[in-house]
Predict the structure.
Amino acid sequence: MKIENLPNEFKKARPVMQKIEDDGFEAYFVGGSVRDTILGLDIHDVDIATSAYPEEIKKIFTRTVDTGIEHGTVMVIHNKKGYEITTFRTESGYQDFRRPDKVEFVRSLAEDLKRRDFTINAFAMRENGEVTDLFDGLTDLKNHLIRAVGNPNERFHEDALRMMRAVRFASKLDFDIESDTLQAIKENSELLEKIAVERIYTEFVKMMMAKRPKQGILDMINTDMYKYVPEFASHRDELEEIAKMDELSLSDEIEVWSLLSSEFNLDRIEIMRFLKAWKASNDVIKSTEICTKAIEKLRDDTLDKWSMYETGKELLVKANHIAKMYGFDKPEDDLISQYDALPIKNKKEIVVNGGDLIGNGIVKPGPTLGKVLFELENGIVNGDILNEKAELIEAAKKIVKE
Ligand code: ATP
Ligand code: MG
């Protein structure tokens, strides 16, 4: 097969490829960008594989960066853009179900393609558009199948993350997992426990944000994989509920985790525990807590000015997006105009501060000060106090008296 009209991303990289070939080495586009191009999908980044060793690449190009030289990856800068170029390699060993004991650079493209996870991820394409397909990936693309390269059982023993990747690509492309591959996942799902949570996290979130997350969740349930990722084992029923939702479309990881937290009915402390188990960042945990709380308010119809203020616009829109999937959302325009109409959007906009109150002799430094400021903030947000200096000073005096 030869692709005639290469997308721009490939065209721009052609001179780089040609230069490698001029030096007598092979160079191919590999991985997801080739797959997505054959499918007619947009691509973002191109991966390049070569028979040249990293040192040889560095001799060919003047501007390079060692981005992952121990794995054979060198970045070549061409026309202000960086291209990751990775030497063909084989992997062997895999005694721990996740990482090869030995990585070896090789000159053979076939050896490199053999280590790749699925037939549709094992294409190589020359700069002129000629596609190499050693494992009949084109047929699998046509039949919408995710099939392991080689023996699926062995491949999942080498790296158990591939099971999660199978589910991710099935969701991304709206493909099915081929039956032998699926059977091997069922038999090996337990091996997921050996995999670093961070790697599972990435694949899981991508799966949920892709086209067909409901199928992804069903795949995780039917293969028992859900039992071997953090904190899902006791939530089978809720996961099934999510898989039954009419419309499930998540645009970022906060939405993913907030939907799960909501469906699992987790409170603030439980969300923290849940997401710590997934090794989420503190920012993600914080945002998920806030967003989940707002979803609850939308559900109970108790979303008032103060809770909109506390949530913030961005998370409010996300919460409403999830509420929509459940059918208890508010018209987004209304919600946004209500939010925009709040007198202040954060504490810093209050025209008096603690220093002013102390300076005017209204409050002494100490716990009362914090309380007074909080009541002012609350009063402003609810529209009971104007955010003007004289009025705030008067209001503060009254609060202190009470
Ligand atoms: P995406 O468009 O989502 O980035 P991708 O196919 O490029 O999809 P990557 O995770 O970026 O996926 O990996 C790039 C390529 O590296 C894959 O297409 C596959 O050939 C190979 N690969 C990645 N991870 C593995 C793995 N765990 N086992 C075997 N091959 C892998
Ligand atoms: Mg990729």
